[in-house]
């Protein structure tokens, strides 16, 4: 009888931990992923959004471009910065390709 109570309590603990870890892995990615994840998520949602792309300037590049190009300045009001920290020219090419195909620019 003692073992039955122990097994039930152990089962409840294991199920609770499983549910908790599953929730964290699925919905709380900011807790355990790299600090670049929010920037990547912004670029991904911007590329796949079904909103009109009303920008005159599109910035692609690495972390230097991300830090150096501020689209909220008065001169650059109609611009967007889709740079990713640590990215390569190949990744910038595919971001540009997805944007061109998604928004049918050419």
Question: Describe it for me?
Answer:
- There is one protein chain.
- By secondary structure, the chain is mainly alpha-helical.
- It has two domains: 1-32; 33-106, no CATH class.
- 56% of the residues lie in helices and 6% in strands.
- The chain is built from four helices and two strands.
- It has helices at 2-27, 37-48, 63-68, 89-103; strands at residues 57-59, 79-81.
- A two-stranded parallel sheet has the order 1-2.
- Helix 3 links the parallel strand 1 (57-59) and strand 2.
- It is elongated, with a radius of gyration of 22 Å.
- The relative contact order is 0.12.
N-to-C order of helices and strands: HHEHEH
Percent of residues in helices comes to 55-70%
How many domain modules?
A: 2
Please list the strands of the largest sheet in the order they lie side by side: 1-2
Q: What is the count of β-strands?
A: 2
**Overall average pLDDT:** 84
Write the layout of secondary structure elements.
Layout (H helix, E strand, L loop, with lengths): L1 H26 L9 H12 L8 E3 L3 H6 L10 E3 L7 H15 L3
Parallel strand pairs: 1-2
TL;DR?
This protein is mainly α and 106 residues long.
Features of the shown structure:
106 residues; 2 domains; 4 helices; 56% helix
């Amino acid at each position: 009888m003692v073992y039955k109570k122990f097994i039930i309590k152990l089962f409840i603990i294991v199920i609770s931990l499983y549910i908790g870890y599953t929730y964290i892995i699925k919905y709380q990615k900011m807790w355990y992923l790299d600090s670049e994840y929010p920037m990547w998520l912004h670029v991904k949602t911007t590329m796949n959004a079904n909103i009109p792309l009303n920008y005159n300037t599109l910035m692609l590049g690495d972390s230097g471009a991300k830090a150096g190009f501020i689209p909220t300045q008065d001169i650059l009001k109609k611009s967007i910065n889709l740079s990713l920290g640590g990215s390569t020219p190949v990744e910038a090419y595919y971001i540009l390709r997805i944007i061109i195909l998604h928004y049918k620019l050419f």
